[in-house]
């Protein structure tokens, strides 16, 4: 190494994304405007995947910079959780979501229930499916502890890495693998925003029943997403499909918790069966 940082070119692959607010200089809104939401069809990305079956899952967004006004003009602060079903036809681009939430800052509402109804209506229209909205305005009265994602942490595996693009061929099961039910996790997930190329950092959990997966190989595969330019939701779907095709489990759940950007974090999960996931924040969130 000569001390210089290697360059990695970035090109936006989708002309539709060129119209998204992300990566552009935009003025922050001073009044409520649901037209700020920029929906993106899921279908185009899913056409690239070998989706084995209909899946279950959600995209869970947490918003930590929620505020609006009472009828008397007094600010209210809160945190919110938005649950978009995985079978909704569209996802929402993150900067447009942030701008939309900020457009509520000077709006007056009688109570938080009306804020919730407004959000649910606008987001359902953007996503093409009902969106669950929860708002907590008692943020000074409760404490939420952070902890690692559940599962056996595989990050200490001694691996040689040369692939930094998604490489499903790295995945494999143990030789003569026994049938197991286990949960594995890694904090080494990184992908990149497809609009700006900025890094997205996260942790990922793989919960499955099936032939035992080679843990070092799984870690190599997770690391191979390091230069992948795709939205959080699509990265989870690609991991799910690749693991399913390579390891043929009886059941599978893939869940990622990404770090916060612009007051929002995104936490998608996909599962072969109905399931639930922990909502506890990781330390990096």
UniProtKB/TrEMBL annotation:
Pathway stated in the Swiss-Prot or TrEMBL entry: tRNA modification; tRNA-queuosine biosynthesis
Positions contributing to substrate binding: 92-94, 232-233
Task performed by this protein: Catalyzes the NADPH-dependent reduction of 7-cyano-7-deazaguanine (preQ0) to 7-aminomethyl-7-deazaguanine (preQ1).
Principal location listed in the UniProt entry: cytoplasm
Family: Belongs to the GTP cyclohydrolase I family. QueF type 2 subfamily.
Protein name per Swiss-Prot or TrEMBL: NADPH-dependent 7-cyano-7-deazaguanine reductase
Coiled coil: none
Active site (UniProt): 193, 200
SUPFAM superfamilies: Tetrahydrobiopterin biosynthesis enzymes-like (SSF55620)
Broadest EC class assigned to this enzyme: oxidoreductase
Quaternary context: Homodimer.
Molecular-function GO term, any one: preQ1 synthase activity
Subcellular location as annotated: Cytoplasm
InterPro entries xrefs: GTP-CH-I_C/QueF, NADPH_dep_7-cyano-7-deazaG_red, QueF, QueF_N, QueF_type2
Binding-site residues, NADPH: 94-95, 261-262
Top-rank taxon: Bacteria
Taxonomic classification: Bacteria, Pseudomonadati, Pseudomonadota, Betaproteobacteria, Burkholderiales
């Amino acid at each position: 190494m000569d001390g210089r940082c290697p360059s990695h070119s970035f090109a936006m692959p989708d002309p539709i994304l060129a119209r998204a607010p992300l990566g552009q200089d935009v003025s922050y809104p001073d009044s409520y405007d649901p037209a700020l939401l920029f929906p993106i069809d899921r279908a185009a990305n899913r056409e690239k995947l070998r989706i084995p079956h209909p899946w279950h899952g959600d995209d869970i967004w947490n918003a930590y910079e929620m505020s609006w006004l009472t009828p008397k003009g007094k600010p209210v602060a809160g945190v919110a959780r938005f649950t978009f079903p995985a079978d909704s036809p569209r996802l929402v681009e993150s900067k447009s979501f942030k701008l939309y939430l900020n457009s509520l800052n000077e709006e007056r509402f009688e109570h938080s229930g009306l804020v919730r109804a407004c959000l649910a209506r606008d987001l359902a229209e953007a996503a093409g499916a009902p969106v669950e909205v929860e708002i907590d305005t008692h943020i000074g009265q409760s404490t939420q502890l952070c902890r690692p994602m559940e599962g056996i942490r595989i990050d200490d595996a001694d691996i040689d890495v040369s692939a930094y693009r998604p490489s499903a061929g790295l995945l494999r099961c143990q030789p003569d693998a026994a049938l197991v039910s286990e949960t594995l996790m890694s904090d080494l997930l990184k992908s990149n925003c497809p609009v700006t190329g900025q890094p997205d950092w996260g942790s990922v959990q793989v919960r499955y029943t099936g032939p035992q997966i080679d843990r070092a190989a799984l870690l190599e595969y997770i690391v191979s997403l390091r230069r992948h330019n795709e939205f959080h939701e699509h990265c989870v779907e690609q991991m799910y499909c690749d693991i399913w095709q390579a390891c043929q489990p009886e059941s599978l759940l893939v869940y990622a918790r990404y770090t916060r950007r612009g007051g929002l974090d995104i936490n998608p999960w996909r599962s072969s069966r109905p399931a639930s996931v922990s909502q506890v924040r990781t330390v990096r969130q």
